[in-house]
Design goal:
The protein is an alpha/beta fold and 421 residues long. A hairpin with a 2-residue loop joins strand 11 and strand 12. Helix 3 packs parallel to helix 5 and helix 9 packs across helix 11. The two termini are 57 Å apart. It has an eight-stranded mixed β-sheet with strand order 10-11-12-14-15-17-16-13. The longest helix has 19 residues. The site of 4-amino-2-(cyclopentylamino)pyrimidine-5-carboxamide has 15 residues, from strand 5.
Length: 421
């Protein structure tokens, strides 16, 4: 990787690029960093590099000519290469690890142009630069520090510069998370102990602890990154769920008994309110009510789900033919075969979005399968997005439309779904 930094202060930039890891990498021939004086390419005898801004205003603007001449010379020196000319400015795209990875993998020559004063003539940027990058939302006196930052972050990913690619692959921003906290000797410093798990030295435990720390820190310090992060394993999913207060709840279920009817009325009542709030014209005619639920219980197949003993949801599975399913605008997947039907699926408000609908459908499917049925059917209102999403996610096929002939609802069209085992 060759990098040319075009600047009015090469003598300020050079020592930084020759120190430490980058200096050693240059000696090994892995990278080549040149700091080029823009002033050497002026075509006026005062060696003037800047001039007053057109339109007035404070300060000076760097002229295009010396910059272009300097760039041409650098280009000629470097010869044919996969080159990227980058202007550093607060107007650029925000530089991040993703940019660094792209630059190191796609190019072998970077030209970093450092502005000073009020910036450079826009025509130079327009005609000579491929990209404009910013280090962040702040203003500096020159582009040198950002240029050094870009050069540094790119060069450390050049193979061989760091002893082990794991050095940068496991760290901040590589996988969209911040770094875990680091400790070194002594065990106790000013009364502060190194976390026990790190001193125990059990590799697996340390890995798990570090991952958790990364997630905790990212959530606390960079909610934007945390929100964009996709957990990479079931273990991470559990941690994320816990951190966001959305850990998987453990539900119990049992066939409902008549004494449960008040709880069932409360659940279906909340579901009906919710449907109304969402503008869904379903369960708005007073059904299911106490009597229908008691009848469901008596018929068997009505299941109450609880969490920590508290009622959380209800679902009914009918093994009988559903008269309203005899006529369908469309076609069932298993015409004529025995099937089961899901009814009354309702989740209490406090458990919405907590995986309960999935568990209820899972139970119905397990029961149906266990009893030798080949499919399970369900219907829902076309506007009931929540129910449709769960059904479709679980592999229920949309078979067409049915019509609730015996209901008193104002809108009796329903979408018909069927899952075939
Ligand atoms: C900030 C940044 C940058 C400056 C940044 C042109 C004249 C730009 C001075 C220069 N300030 N350059 N690249 N946030 N200042 O990256």
């Amino acid at each position: 990787m060759r990098i040319d930094i075009l600047t009015l202060f090469p003598e300020a930039v050079r020592p930084m690029m020759e120190a430490s890891i980058l200096g050693r990498a240059a000696k090994k021939g892995l990278i080549e960093i040149h700091c080029v004086q823009i002033r050497d390419f002026t075509d006026n005898k005062q060696q003037q590099v800047d001039d007053y801004p057109y339109g007035g205003g404070w300060g000076c603007v760097m002229m295009a000519q010396p910059l272009k001449a300097c760039l041409d010379w650098v280009t000629a020196q470097a010869g044919p290469k996969k080159r990227r000319v980058i202007y550093l400015s607060p107007q650029g795209a925000r530089f991040d690890q993703g940019h660094a990875r792209r630059l190191v993998s796609e190019y072998d020559h970077l030209v970093l142009v450092c502005g000073h004063y009020e910036g450079v003539d826009e025509r130079f940027i327009q005609t000579c630069c491929d990209e404009e990058l910013s280090l962040g939302d702040f203003v500096l006196t020159g582009g040198e520090i950002p240029a050094m930052a870009v050069a540094d972050s790119v060069c450390r990913m050049v193979p061989g510069v760091l002893s082990d690619p794991a050095c940068y692959m496991g760290e901040s921003h590589w996988d969209g998370l911040l770094e875990y906290p680091q400790y070194t000797r002594p065990d106790v410093w000013e009364g502060l102990e190194v976390p026990e798990v790190l001193r125990q030295g059990v590799h697996r435990d340390i890995q798990a602890w570090r991952r958790e720390q990364q997630l905790i820190r990212t959530q606390a310090r960079r909610p934007d990154m945390f929100a964009a992060y996709t957990p990479q394993s079931p273990e991470e999913e559990r941690i994320v769920a816990r951190l966001t207060g959305r850990e998987k709840l453990v539900y119990d279920c049992r066939p409902a008994v008549p004494e449960d009817v008040d709880a069932l009325v409360a659940i279906t009542g909340e579901a009906s309110d919710y449907l109304r709030q969402c503008g869904v014209d379903q369960w708005q005619d007073g059904f299911p009510n106490r009597d229908t639920l008691l009848a469901d219980i008596a018929a068997g197949g009505c299941w109450l789900f609880t969490h920590d003993g508290a009622p959380a949801g209800v679902v009914c599975l009918y093994a009988r033919e559903e008269p309203d399913y005899a006529v369908i605008d469309g076609a069932w997947r298993t015409e004529g075969a025995p099937y089961t039907t899901i009814h009354r699926a309702a989740v209490k408000a406090a458990y919405r979005g907590r995986g309960l609908a999935d568990e209820m459908l899972q139970l119905c499917e397990d029961l149906a399968l266990g009893r030798g049925y080949g499919s399970v059917r369900a219907d829902t209102h076309p506007d009931n997005r929540a129910m449709r999403t769960v059904l479709e996610r679980r592999g229920y096929a949309l078979c067409g439309q049915i019509y609730l002939t015996r209901s008193t609802e104002s809108d009796r069209r329903r979408l018909a779904y069927e899952k075939v085992f």
